[in-house]
Amino acid sequence: MDEDEVLDRLRDVEAPDLGEDIVSLGLVNSVELDDGTARVSLGLGAPYSPTETAIADEVRDALADLGLEADLSARVDAGAGEGDVLSDVQNVIAVASGKGGVGKSTVAVNIAAGLAERGARVGLFDADVYGPNVPRMLGATEPPKATAEETMVPPEKYGLKLMSMAFLVGEEDPVIWRGPMVHKVITQLWEDVEWGALDYMVVDLPPGTGDTQLTLLQSVPVTGAVVVTTPQQVALDDARKGLEMFGKHETPVLGIVENMAGFRCPDCGSEHAVFGEGGGRRFADDHDMPFLGSIPLDPAVRTGDDEGRPIVLDPDNETGERFRDLAGEVADNAGIVRRRRHASR
After folding, report:
1. Coil, strand or helix at 136
2. How far is CA 230 from CA 239, 282, 289, 312, in A?
3. How far apart are the first and last CA of the chain?
4. What pLDDT, in 10s, does the model give residues 283-315?
5. Which of 96, 266, 292, 299 has its CA 20 to 30 A from that of 242?
6. Within its chain, how far is the Cα of 268 from the centroid?
7. CATH code of the region 3-74
8. What is the Cα–Cα distance from 239 to 229, expressed in whole angstroms?
9. Residue extents of the structural domains in the chain
């Protein structure tokens, strides 16, 4: 048996959403045979995503059919070069909203915690300079540690490496900064924090389309953005501005999340469409964007935020299950972006 026979067998493994097999798409970087073991490097870039996990399982099954033990690794073309900002981070996921009050930070925290729960190495960067409340949502009170080289080591909670403006300003101090100062501080927090190697960095952006967003898009290789909205029209109007911003900077939008889609009554278990219904899905369809999921207005989410434990970590909560599904969808769509980029190189 030789490498060509292995490649022929791997042509039976399809890459979902790309419409071809992994060999034709160039997603098999290399095959090496060594005493009954096939070392296969795959062009996969979204660790622990459901789709890429399934692809790897199919590859193992295909190799087993040939009587070979599988030794798999993954490598895709990096978005950043060695020494560039966040060069050790595989995927930077921006979580954005056109307006405040739509639960964007809650969505960002639960996506990050959901990815970490799957086993991924995850960083969570609270870049909402004017309202940094992510540490409270995680119950994170330990500040970053300083090194002799004057860099910062981020604290960890629930498997997440966390950095937030809340660690750098007083709890009651208002943040009154002009654009250049925002750019300087945000850039320093990327460059002077020892994030280490990460599969995902989730960035919680401030609402709107201001200086922080531009700094991110101009200085960091963003894999894609998640846009959070609520069902009502005023939120959808503002979400449209966010889409336009990402479009101007050629940043892929991984999809739309409809938050607060309905009030889940804790007593009767029924849902009531307080802010309307279906607006997020219609918005996604109208703009030919993936719809990532609908999250209800559940009192348990607020309780989790206040107590510092994301609802996605509650295995018995139905809304937590929706957030777990959302984290998987985000990872899957990041994987599509990375595989398409790798296949077209």
Report:
1. helix
2. 9, 12, 16, 19
3. 29
4. 899 889 999 999 988 888 989 988 999 999 999
5. 299
6. 33
7. 3.30.300.130
8. 6
9. 3-74, 89-343
